[in-house]
Amino acid sequence: MVQRSVLFTAVVAALVIQASHAVQAQAYPSGPITVVVSFPAGGSIDAVVRAIAPKLQERMGRPIVVENRAGGGGVIATAAVAKSSPDGHMLLATASSIASNPSLFKALPFDTLKDLQAVSLLFHTPLVLVVNPGLPAKSVGELIALARQKPGEISFAQSGPGSAVHLAAELLQTMTGTKMNGVAYRGAPPALNDVMAGHVSMMFADAGSVVSLIAGGKVRALGVSSPTRVPALPDIPTIAEAGVSGFDAVGWTMICVAAATPAPIVDRLQREFALAAAAPDVQALMTRLGLLPVASPPPGEVQKFLGSEIDRWGGIIEKAGVAKSQ
To answer: Of 48, 60, 68, 145, which is most buried by a Cβ count within 10 Å?
Structure first.
C-alpha cells in the first residue's frame, strides 16, 4: 500500500507539473521578450537578430527587445540568461565561443549544458584564411610549406585568445604540424588592418569583413574554413579541398534559453525563429554578410550539437595549450 501511495503521489506531481507547463505555454508570451546578444552592436549576430526581431514581434504579439551585453567572450551575456527565470522571456543569441569557454576558463558562473537549453541554430560563420599580398604563398599548400621551412617566423593575427579566429589558426597548425607566431589584438578590425599593412602575415577573418578587401587586392584569400564553399566567394576553395583533409573551423550562432523552460515554449520559439530566419530579406542579409543560413534541427538535437562542440573544441584547445587560468 505504501509503494502504491508513493507511486500515486509521484504520478500526480508529474501531472501537476505537466499541466502547469501547458498553462504557461498557452499564456506565453505574457510580456516583452528580450534577446541578449553576447557581442557589441554592429556585428553579424547583432545585424541578423535585429532583422529577425520585427518578424518575431509581429508573429508573437509582444515587443522584442534586442540588448547587447558584450564582454568576457560571451560569458557576461550567457550568465545573465542562464540565471534568468525559465519562462522564455529572456533569450540568448550567442556564438560558438559558448562551446570553447568551458575549456578556456577554469571556472564559469554557470554550467553550460545544465543551465541552458538550446533552441535553434541560426547560421554558420565561415572564416577566410587571408594573407598579406606580399607573402610568397598563393595557396594553402604553399603557406604550409613556407611555415615548415620557417617555423615560428610566419605570424598570424587573432582577435582574442580562444576566439573562433584564434582557434581556427591553432587547428590549422595542429593538423599540419606547423608552428606559427600568434599576435593578439583587441578585436578583428585592428588585426585585419595589420595584415593589410604587412605587420603580420595572415589571419582567419569573417567572410563578410573581407569580401571587398579580397576584390580590391588588399589581402589574398587562400581558403575558407567551412566544409563547403561560401556563396559570396565561390572561387575560393575550402581548406579541406586545398589539401588539409577534414579541416572544419566554422563558427555558428544559436539561440538559447534558461534550462527548465517548458518544452512547449522552447518548441514554439524554435518554430518562430525558423520562420523569421527563412524570410527572403533575412536570407539575403546573411548572404551579404558571408554567412551560411542553417535549417535548424529540433531543440533536443541542437542541445546534443552544443555538447559535441564543447567536446570537440575542448580537445583542440588542450592540444594547442591555450586554456586560460581564470
So the answer is: 48
Order of strands across the sheet that contains 181-184: 181-184, 155-158, 202-206, 127-131, 220-224
Question: Which 8-state DSSP code applies to residue 200?
Answer: S
All three cell numbers of 323: 586554456
Q: What are the cell numbers at 242? A: 586545398
Cell numbers given for 87: 519562462
Q: Output Rg (C-alpha) for the chain, integer angstroms.
A: 22
Q: What CA–CA distance (Å, rounded) separates 155 from 153?
A: 6
Q: What is the pLDDT of residue 24?
A: 52
Q: Please, what sign has the CA dihedral across residues 219, 222, 227, 232? A: positive
Of 64, 44, 40, whose CA–CA distance to 54 is shortest? 64
Q: Cell 582557434 maps to which residue?
A: 167
Pull the grid cell for residue 258: 534558461
Instruction: State the pTM of this model.
Output: 0.85
| 3-class secondary-structure state, position 94 | strand
The DSSP call for residue 238 is B
Can you tell me whether residue 15 is helix, strand or coil? helix
Q: Tell me, what amino acid is at 201?
A: S
> Cα–Cα distance between 249 and 223 in angstroms, integer?
12
Q: Which residue reads 574554413 in cell numbers?
A: 225
What's the CA gap between 258 and 107, in Å, rounded?
19
Listing DSSP states for 63-79 in one string gives -EEEEE---GGGHHHHH
Q: Which candidate, 233, 235, 245, places its Cα nearest to that of 144?
A: 245
How does strand 116-125 pair with strand 251-258? antiparallel
pLDDT averaged per 10 residues, the chain (length 326): 52 45 71 95 92 97 96 92 98 94 91 98 95 96 96 90 86 94 87 95 92 95 95 94 94 96 98 97 92 93 97 88 66
Backbone φ and ψ for 35, nearest 5 degrees, come out as: -105, 110
Cα dihedral sign for 72, 51, 87, 62? positive
Percent of the chain residues past pLDDT 90, beyond the cut: 75
